[in-house]
Amino acid sequence: MGRVHARAARLAGATIAGVAGSRPEKARQAGLGPAKVFSSADELIESGEIDLVHICTPNHLHAPLALKALSAGLAVICEKPLAMDAATATLMAGRAAEAGLVATVPFVYRFHAMVREARQRIARGDVGRVSLIQGSYLQDWLLRPDDDNWRVDPELGGPSRTFADIGSHWCDLAEFVTADRIVSVCAQTAVVQPARANTSAVVTEDVATVQFRTASGAIGALVTSQVSPGRKNRLLLEISGTEASLAFDQEQPELLWLGHRTGSRALMRDPEILSEAALPYSPLPAGHAQGYHDCFDAFVADTYAALRGERREGLPVFEDGARAAAICEAVLASARTGRWTEC
């Protein structure tokens, strides 16, 4: 992810002034060009040579490094989850707000043009009153017992894996598109592979299912999995209202499905017909596909614009990261107790 961040930063006009890794040789191997290699992240943050730090480390390091950077007066882009628990994530959001510093989280699916189109259509009332929000985020990269990763270790990845890693993206997207908040959840989690190549006893979930209610009274359901064969990054969000439905599939990001009682159609990303809200995120002519890199580039560009004092609509900040952490904590509590849990 460091290379993805660095590419986007350069495209936004930034200079990669320095890089730090778990060891200096790891930092040199990162392939970030002529950037200065610091002996540690602490040295980089305290160097006085940077104005924004990208934190792309394992999860357990997000909070200490981000808090140190904020204390040093630096802007921050920090991968999610912000912290290993909701209270620390809330603390981080508060520190950023108190200091008046730019601090953002890569909920980059917000930056698909067709997501912005969906959000605009719901805001102007095209679907009527939202009644149902449902979908999934499915992967297969941890399908087999010999698949393993540091995220499986709760000491490094945190108490939640699948939901914190990808369910957080879905919930952020659902709340962003509908401008409605999930207020209570009823969840189940399961470990499908009880042992992995380097982990003798897996305790973090492979799959999670969540029912939820929103502040407006809509109900919903979400399925997340990192063990669904053939699914790579299948994030599907479908929203039904009293007048129409719409659906976005991240693996087919050029399309937005629109459904009515009298029929349905797929709207193609075309700058000639998109709303004003979607146009800034649709720089290419219709038929020239945009994807994940474009979203990430737009997210970083908007973060750097905020650093220059410009306001960009929909930029995900630490408050949004803390929100995701609160939902995740409620999901784990509900799965543990078998009860509806507020978030």
Task: Put the structure in a nutshell.
The chain has 343 residues and is α/β, with parallel strands linked by helices. It has 10 helices and 14 strands.
What attributes does this structure have?
343 residues; alpha/beta; Rossmann fold; Dihydrodipicolinate Reductase, domain 2; 2 domains; three-stranded parallel β-sheet; globular
Task: Tell me what you see in this structure.
- With 343 residues, the protein is α/β, with parallel strands linked by helices.
- It has two domains: 2-104, 3-Layer(aba) Sandwich (Rossmann fold); 110-285 and 316-342, Dihydrodipicolinate Reductase, domain 2 (2-Layer Sandwich), CATH 3.30.360.10.
- 33% of the residues lie in helices and 22% in strands.
- The chain is built from ten helices and 14 strands.
- The chain has helices at residues 2-11, 24-28, 41-46, 62-71, 86-99, 113-123, 154-157, 162-178, 292-307, 318-337; strands at 18-19, 36-37, 52-55, 75-78, 103-104, 130-138, 182-190, 207-214, 219-225, 234-241, 245-249, 255-260, 263-268, 341-342.
- Strands 13-12-11-10-6-9-8-7-14 form a nine-stranded mixed beta sheet.
- β4, α5 and β5 form a beta-alpha-beta unit.
- α5 (86-99) packs antiparallel against α10 (318-337).
- The chain is globular, with a radius of gyration of 20 Å.
- The two termini are 29 Å apart.
- The relative contact order is 0.18.
- The mean pLDDT is 96.
Write the layout of secondary structure elements.
Elements: H1 2-11, E1 18-19, H2 24-28, E2 36-37, H3 41-46, E3 52-55, H4 62-71, E4 75-78, H5 86-99, E5 103-104, H6 113-123, E6 130-138, H7 154-157, H8 162-178, E7 182-190, E8 207-214, E9 219-225, E10 234-241, E11 245-249, E12 255-260, E13 263-268, H9 292-307, H10 318-337, E14 341-342
Parallel strand pairs: 1-2, 3-4, 4-5, 6-9
Antiparallel strand pairs: 6-10, 7-8, 7-14, 8-9, 10-11, 11-12, 12-13
Helix pairs in contact: 1-9, 4-5, 5-10, 6-8, 8-10
